[in-house]
Amino acid sequence: MAIKIGLVIRRESGVSSPLLPQREGLDRPPSPFADEDDHRMTTFLHTEDDLRAGLARLIEQDSRLVPIAEKAGTFALRRREAGFAGLCAIVCGQQLSTASAAAIRDRLFAAFDPFHHDAVRQARTDKLKRLGLSTPKIKSIRAIGKALSEGVIDLEAVGNMDADDAHAALVKLHGIGPWTADIYLLFCLGHADAFPSGDLAVQEAVRIAFDLRKRPDPKALTRIAEAWRPWRGVAAHLFWAYYHVVKRREGISLQAKAPASFRRARTGRKTTARKTTRARSTKRKRKNG
């Protein structure tokens, strides 16, 4: 169910609340309207009402977001399954289109019943490849399964951590980079303060919304988002919706950069292909010469 945004902004005399930001100073401190205790709480978005309430608090905290929310219009809370299955689904989607990722994910889930980390990590490599998984993704999924089996990480405990601690715990796992960790926290756990600063759609939406000269990189976007704690996850949902409107296309989770293992594997394949092409060319020249 999509939510209809109703903007109720609390004003106080003597406090200016500009609707549009200047080019500089985007990483300003939170509004004095915000309750300081909010920044020490761990809040989750489980329902549309949670998202609606979080959006109201976010806009109350930073009124620069008023025109952005008005432009974004209605948008829905998106949630996915948590745990090992949720992480696997996100790994499947790394560097792939939505349709391709969904096809691989569905084949993977259908191949294991029940879908348990030990069964998946112990499966034959050729079976996993037939499902559409690349070698780097197989390695990542097996590493996550092993970490769960050996008690290296407890995903239930991660679900009770604040956003920064949970992020730090997840990125210790092989194949889980900052983007994957933040997408898991936001969509699988509903963490209200998880913020995927490496997401291209969010970066581009912020650039357009704040009329920046260039798209902010993850570090710059992280600084900007400090003003939205503890509702950075709500801000991410808002900017995805805004991106969808201004670009007229899907704006959910576009990973900014491939994991290093994926880039090495892809580079290796390209190098092999180039060598093969050169070898064939040389052979033809010798034959014709």
Structural features:
single chain, 289 residues, mainly alpha, Endonuclease Iii, domain 2, Endonuclease III, domain 1, 2 domains, two-stranded antiparallel ribbon, 55% helix, globular, disordered N terminus
What does this structure look like?
By secondary structure, the protein is an all-alpha fold. It folds into two domains: 2-7 and 29-78 and 195-247, Endonuclease Iii, domain 2, CATH 1.10.1670; 83-188, Orthogonal Bundle (Endonuclease III, domain 1), CATH 1.10.340.30. Helices cover 55% and strands 1% of the residues. It has 14 helices and two strands, in the order βααβαααααααααααα. It has helices at 48-61, 66-72, 83-93, 98-111, 117-121, 125-130, 135-149, 155-158, 163-170, 178-188, 200-209, 218-225, 232-247, 260-288, and strands at residues 2-3, 75-76. The protein has a two-stranded antiparallel sheet with strand order 1-2. The radius of gyration is 22 Å and the shape is globular. The termini are far apart. The model is unreliable at 1-25, 27-37 and 256-266 (pLDDT under 50).
